[in-house]
Amino acid sequence: MTESDFVSLEAAATVLGISVRHVRRLVNSGSLTQVARGVLESDSVDRYLMSQRQGRTRSWAEHTAWGAIAVLSGGEADWLGPTQISRVRRTLRELADPSELVSRVRDRARVRTFTAHRAALPRLRATVLRPNMNALGIVDSGEDRIDGYIAARELDNVIRTLGLRTEPSGDITLRVTGFDFDQVGKLVSTSAVVAALDAATALDPRIRGVGQRALTEMLETYR
Asked: Which of 222, 195, 191 is nearest to 208 (CA)?
C-alpha cells in the first residue's frame, strides 16, 4: 500500500469538480470509500469519476436501473409500472453513448473493495454473484480476485464472518445492492448487459474499452 492509494477530501473534490460537502455526502451514501478521517480510497474516486462521464445525466433509482438492465437484456421488468417501463424503453432507444447508460444505471449497486485471507475466498466466491465476463471475451482474472454482487443485507455478516478488510487496491470487489436479490441473480447470471456495465467502469482501459463497445452494440440492437 502506498500514498497513491489514498486521496484527501479536498483533492477528491478537486478531481470530481464538486464541493467538499458534496464529497462527504457521497461518502455517506457509499458512493466513495473513506478509509480514515478525511482520507478516501483513490480507486473509489476513479470508479466514481468513470461512472460520471455524463456528469449532468440523472441516474435512475436502484429498482429502475435494474429494470432498464432487464429491458435491455430482452426481458421483462415486472416491478416497474407501465409508465416507468415506457419511459425506460424510450430512453434506451434514444441513448447512443454507452457512458450515458453507465451513468444512468450507476446506482444499481455501491462498489466496495476488500482484501481477505485466501482461506476465505472459496466461501466468498460461493456467496457473491459474478457476471460472465467470458461472454465478452474477457478472461477470468484468477482465483485470487473476486468481483461480484451481494445483497446489502448480507454485507455486514460476510465482512465479519470472513474477516474482510477494507483495502483501496484490494482484490475483492463487492457490488452491494438492496434490490430484490432473486431478480439480481437472474440478471447477473443470464444477462451480458451486467457484465458489460461492470467492464465499462473498470480501471483497466482495455477491459473498459471492451465493455463500452459491447454496450454500444447492445444499444444499437435495441433501437
From this structure: 195
